[in-house]
Specification:
1 helix; mainly beta; nine-stranded mixed β-sheet; about 240 residues; globular; single chain; eight-stranded antiparallel β-sheet; about 5% helix
Amino acid sequence: MVLIASLAIYYVSIVTSFAAPASTIKVNVRQAGSSVRKFTCDSAYIDFSDPEALSKFNIEWCPQNVYQSNGTLSWRLSSECGTTISYPWDFQYGKIEGRIRMAPGSGVVTTMLLAGPAPADELDWEWVGKDTWTAQSMYFVKGQRVDPNAQFFHTPGDVAQDMSTGFHNYAIEVNKDSIKWYIDNWLTRTLSKSNGVPFPSAASGARMGVWDGSQTSGWAGTVNWAQGPFAAEMQWFRFTPYC
């Protein structure tokens, strides 16, 4: 559950459902909560070893806490704020994928999601820093939880890996009649469209970042700022519309 169509809306959805140096490269900073959507059929692969890669995103929140270093993009959570970036193009159907190392630490939440305008349909991968061994998949329809609980997944194979110590590929795929979540190309979950059951058909824009989950009634834990700041990293991002 992340920064839905806006950071503020995202925090509201969480609470409801769960009773570094600044970059020196050019970036786009916009007001969180913009409902403007721009659809495209153009695919993109963005490698953060390219020093201009961050300029291909909008920074929606806390620009001082997102930066490129050593071939990766870092999202930092400090006591001042967490950060959110968004890809400026949407698709109706398609797939997003990122190679991510989650941020560890109680209360620290790392997110990659697709969301539409408010009240948002939303599809999430989330990593809660107090549990570095699982990723959580969730979805919302018009800002409301449909399934009461997140589903938890570890890395593929017989031995689970700590997701905060290494990079893994995470993806969300949107089709007309199904949503699919992947870890390291392993299909972990499929949500199929069913008559009479609300389905998130308008989740179209990619957002990513880290945020403070201390106010989520224990779901994420409480941040210990004496151990911060906290950082998640991304090596690359892929955006693939199905047109």
